């Protein structure tokens, strides 16, 4: 028996060495068939054959110095005066679409003002504005199909607005009232909508990125005609999850648009303390991902880039990285005071000189589609709509405390049933400490 086992082991080893010999021969064959042409036929060209890189040998010691490389250019369609720079790049969007872009950008702006103030007055617990980044929202949202799946970070409310999330729904979420789709279980601005294919926002940075890559992989396996778009900030791009997502999507050829909003800051950390490379776009080629950098304050440039990226994702089944350069005009959130780390002059430059709303308005005025009167009328109307939704959401009752226990399990397990029972008994025993009249009734 022992001898048979020894013989079998030897036979396996011999088999293995034959395989190695065959593979090696194959490798040599591959390299040696590249015969040099010219005066010395038959001489074999010396090319590196290391697996996993495309390269050639050099005999001079030279490091790649990032500083000596040209910066990645910023693609623009509209200049700051709202004129098309290169006629062939004009997306030629119809008046209704451009007007919707503008109305949604300014409506978002108006909602931001009201909800920001509302937090300052103690009426809601938290808020984050989108000031200055409206062009990245509407430009990208307009280029997608509504059935494409969106993973946001938290500063992409405009994408939801474009898709039809109503002012009521925004307000209900921020007030965490009984009409909130998330039943008051999340902090304000953590929106989500199954109907609108917008995955609920999650606070821990970059967690949406590997999830989005996974969804795109699932789309590919299901042969769906849809892409996933994953928004993230340049700060979030420093998380390990960003690397995992980009590499996963590249290696598995997933139809996903990674949309980076580079707004200059991650709370108080400016980009110069965040990375040393040329923005986030410079990382794309490293992953083997098709990449473009666009002017995020130019909604048409963002639109063209997203539209083309979507096409690449679907026709070639591969990811695309878009880096949209923009600026966060507001404070990071209501928990932040940005005057501690940046100057008023810096902010007012972006607010006054390079603002996506102003740029689109210039374009519309140039086209004869908009004027002072239309502006005045619309801004009044926008404010009225926001105030109406605000006034309706605020007094609405909060969800029943029972909702704390629902929706994690299909059926409430005995342990949670017990906890719910104890919670109810406790609240009823100490009613005077709980403003129960503000909540929907418990059963
Ligand atoms: C894992 C993790 N670390 C830290 C935070 C705290 N945090 C919330 S937002 C933020 C900055 C993110 O900046 P960026 O990705 O550039 O997005 P922006 O706020 O500029 O839109 C930080 C550090 C967090 N939410 N999650
Ligand atoms: Mg940022």
From TrEMBL:
Keywords: Metal-binding, Mitochondrion, Oxidoreductase, Potassium, Thiamine pyrophosphate, Transit peptide. Its EC number is 1.2.4.4. It is found in: Mitochondrion matrix. GO terms for biological process: branched-chain amino acid catabolic process. Signal peptide: none annotated. The keyword Oxidoreductase applies. This is 2-oxoisovalerate dehydrogenase subunit alpha. It comes from Littorina saxatilis. The lineage of its organism: Eukaryota, Metazoa, Spiralia, Lophotrochozoa, Mollusca.
């Amino acid at each position: 028996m022992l001898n048979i086992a020894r013989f079998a082991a030897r036979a396996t080893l011999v088999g293995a060495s034959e395989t190695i010999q065959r593979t090696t021969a194959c490798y040599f064959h591959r390299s040696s068939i590249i015969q040099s042409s010219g005066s010395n036929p038959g001489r074999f060209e010396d090319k590196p054959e290391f697996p996993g890189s495309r390269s050639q040998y050099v005999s001079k010691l030279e490091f790649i110095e990032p500083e000596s490389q040209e910066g990645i250019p910023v693609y623009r369609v509209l200049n700051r005066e709202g004129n098309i720079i290169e006629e062939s790049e004009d997306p030629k969007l119809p008046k209704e679409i451009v007007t919707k872009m503008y109305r949604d950008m300014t409506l978002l702006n108006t909602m931001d003002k009201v909800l920001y103030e509302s937090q300052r007055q103690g009426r809601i617990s938290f808020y984050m504005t989108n000031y200055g980044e409206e062009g990245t929202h509407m430009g990208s949202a307009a280029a997608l199909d509504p059935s494409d799946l969106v993973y946001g970070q938290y500063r992409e409310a405009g994408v939801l607005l474009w898709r039809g999330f109503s002012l009521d729904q925004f307000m209900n979420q921020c007030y965490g009232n009984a009409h909130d789709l998330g039943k008051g279980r999340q902090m304000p601005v953590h929106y989500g909508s199954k109907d609108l294919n917008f995955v609920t926002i999650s606070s821990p940075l970059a967690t949406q990125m590997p999830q989005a890559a996974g969804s795109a992989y699932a789309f590919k396996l299901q042969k769906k005609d849809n892409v996933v778009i994953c928004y993230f900030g340049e700060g979030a791009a420093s998380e390990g999850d960003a690397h995992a997502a980009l590499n996963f999507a590249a290696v598995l050829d997933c139809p996903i648009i990674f949309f980076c909003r580079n707004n200059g800051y991650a709370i108080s950390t400016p980009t110069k303390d965040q990375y040393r490379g040329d923005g986030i776009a410079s990382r794309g080629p490293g992953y083997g991902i098709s990449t473009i950098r666009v002017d995020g304050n130019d909604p048409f440039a963002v639109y063209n880039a997203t539209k083309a990226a979507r096409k690449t994702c679907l026709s070639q089944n591969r990811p695309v990285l878009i880096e949209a350069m923009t600026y966060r005009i507001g404070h990071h959130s209501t928990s932040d005071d940005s005057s501690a780390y940046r100057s008023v002059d810096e902010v007012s430059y972006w607010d006054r000189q390079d603002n996506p709303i102003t740029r689109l308005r210039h374009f519309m005025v140039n086209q004869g589609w908009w004027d002072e009167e239309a502006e005045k009328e619309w801004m009044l109307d926008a404010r009225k709509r926001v105030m109406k939704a605000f006034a309706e959401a605020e007094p609405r009752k909060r969800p029943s405390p029972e909702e704390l226990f629902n929706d994690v399990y299909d059926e409430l397990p005995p342990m949670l049933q017990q906890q719910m029972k104890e919670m109810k008994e406790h609240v009823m025993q100490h009613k005077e400490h709980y403003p129960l009249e503000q909540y929907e009734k418990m059963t």
